[in-house]
Amino acid sequence: MIVRDLGLVEFEPICEAMRKFTAERTPDTQDELWLLEHPAVFTMGLNGKDEHVLNTHDIPLVNTDRGGQVTYHGPGQLIAYTLIDLKRNKIGVRDMVTRLENSLIAIMAEQGIAAKSRADAPGVYVDGRKIGALGLRVKRGACYHGLSFNIDMDLTPFSYINPCGYQGLEVIDLKSLGCELTMEQAKQYFVSEFKQQMLSNNA
After folding, report:
1. Out of 15, 143, 164, 179, which one is annotated catalytic?
2. Tens-place pLDDT, residues 121-170
C-alpha cells in the first residue's frame, strides 16, 4: 500500500482525483492511503438531507458521492482516504468500516482513552461524543473516501449542522480529551494501525 501525505488541500480537487484514480485503476494497481487536512468545508453525502444543515456561516457546502449525511472538515482534523481494492483483498464494505473504526479505537487505547464504535451509527465515539466519522464509496469493487479523525481543531462549526444527521450529537477532539498528539504523530499512528488492520483476516 502506497501512503501519500498531501498536507492541507481543498476538498473538491481531491474528490475528483479519487474518482479518477478509482476509474482508471486496474487489477494490478497498488492500493493507496492518502493522508491530509482540508480547509473549512461542509460535505453532504449521497443520503444527505438539507434539514441537517442549520446555518453554514459562509463555510462552503459541497455535495459529494460518499455515503452518509452532512459533516464538517477543517484544519486540525486528520483525513484518511482509503483507495483500496476490496474485491482483491476479499473485504466487504462493512468489514472495511470496522477496520477503519478499529484503527482509531486502537490509537486512542494507546493514549489511555476508551473509545468504541456503534452498530447503529458508523464512527468512533468517546462517552457518546463523536471523534471519528466514516463515509465510503465503492465502484467496480474498489472503495474511496474514508474517515476523519478530530485531533486538535475548532469544533464550533459542528454546531452549525446536525453532525452525520444526528440532532444534538456532541463532537469532540483529542486535544479536548487531554491528549497532546500532534498531527504528524496521529498520521504515523494511523498508518501503523491501519496496516495491521488490513493484514488481519478477522478485523
Report:
1. 164
2. 889 999 999 999 999 999 999 999 999 999 999 999 999 999 888 888 89
Cell of 61: 457546502
With H, G, I as helix, E, B as strand and everything else as coil, classify residue 96. helix
8 Å CB contact between 9 and 26 = no
**143 is annotated as an active-site residue:** no
Q: Which amino acid is at 14?
A: I
In whole angstroms, what is the distance from residue 9 CA to residue 98 CA? 27
36-83 pLDDT, tens digit each: 999 999 999 888 888 999 999 999 999 999 888 899 999 999 999 999
**pTM metric for this prediction:** 0.94
User: Hey, what's the cell of 185?
Assistant: 504523530
Least Cα distance to 18 among 136, 106, 111 occurs for 136
Structural contact between residues 126 and 177, judged by C-beta atoms closer than 8 angstroms = yes
Determine the Cα–Cα distance for residues 93 and 109; give it in Å rounded to an integer: 24
- Contacting residues for 193 by C-beta, under 8 A, at least 6 apart: 102, 103, 104, 106, 107
Domains annotated for the chain, with CATH where assigned, are: 2-199 (3.30.930.10)
- Residue 143 CA to residue 96 CA, distance in Å, equals 9
- CA atoms within a 13 Å half-sphere pointing along the CA-CB vector of 131: 27
Is the CB of residue 139 less than 8 Å from the CB of residue 23? yes
